[in-house]
Amino acid sequence: MSRNPQSNIDLAxxxxxxxxxxxxxxxxxxPIPPAVNHSPAFLDLERQAVFEREWICVGRDDELAxxxxxxxxxxxxxxxxxxxxxxxxxxxxxxxxxxxxxxLLSAAKxxxxxxxxxxxxxxxxxxxxxxxxxxxxxKDGFDRSDHRLRGLPVATxxxxxxxSLSEQPRKDLAASLEPLRAGVVGRYGMAxxxxxxxxxxxxxxxxxxxxxxxIESYHVPIAHRKTFAQHDKPLADYVCGEDSPHYCxxxxxxxxxxxxxxxxxxxxxxxxxxxxxxxxxxxxxxHLVTLMPDYLWYISVxxxxxxxxxxxxxxxxxxxxxxxxxxxxxxxWVAEFRQYMNTANEEDKALVEALHRGSASPxxxxxxxxxxxxxxxxxxxxxxxxCGKKAGA
Length: 393
Fold this sequence. Notes:
Strand content: 15-25%
Mean pLDDT: 95
CATH class of the largest domain: Alpha Beta
Structural class: alpha+beta
Order of helices and strands: HHEEEEEEEEEEEHEHHEEEEEEHHH
Number of strands: 18
């Protein structure tokens, strides 16, 4: 099948249209140029400008509970893993042996005392140092210290683990997110939330279509009638946060003081309206979080070509909520929660894939934004800045 018309547009024109869209003030802004979600040339650019240079969320810090616990992940086609070192710090490495680059860890998560290559049994510690290389004494001058795993920058923020493929990421993670932490999300104590589930899905849409969908709640009363719309938050109550080149967010209070979406009575971290406040935020480029007093839902989304995306998502809950669930009921409680989130994902999947299909047309209306869709405009400006600088635009 031939490419859709939006996939064949010249990259220079796409960048020009993106810069123009980002330059407009919000009151006159139009939706993101459709070619940025369909062009293979633009995908190649954003892989270099965004995914190879930014901090990418790979999971939750509590999933690395003990030394040797690890998570595997992939960023821009590069497999990697994060492992808890003996000193308590997380360490990140390219998931490839220093011998002939065979993949070391194949499971999504697990625990190891040593990391052993399944090919020739080269064995490493959790600091990436080569401990054993069978029969390599047969090679004159072989020195184990010259053959360690390729390390990657790793950082934690509010209970999340981030990795960068770049030795010099585009920003200092903590410094760039400090206003978001200090002014908004820090009061929730996300680092104390315990992860109860994690899954991966693949949808037929561009990765940015999911970003667009997640960072606006205009669609919630219409599209999420089985799930989030049941909170009955009036659209007039939504507030979009300050403009930032590093993140965006919006928030709205729950009408009810009790029930799902409200703080547990034993929650001593939140006061006032924050005890029933929902926050949707995005750490640019691709880390999405719905933060509630009684749970958080996060997604880390990756491109899988220009017409497909793959996302890892998980749910974490505060300790006071978990304490109310008896051990013998934990599995059933998690299964019910998972079904709720899967229903929400199915509601979103239809929208996200429709957004991608519709924007492939060569004949499109100019589009506009609702007042509570300011976050989309903020993301467009981030993308124009990141890709424009890389391309020299």
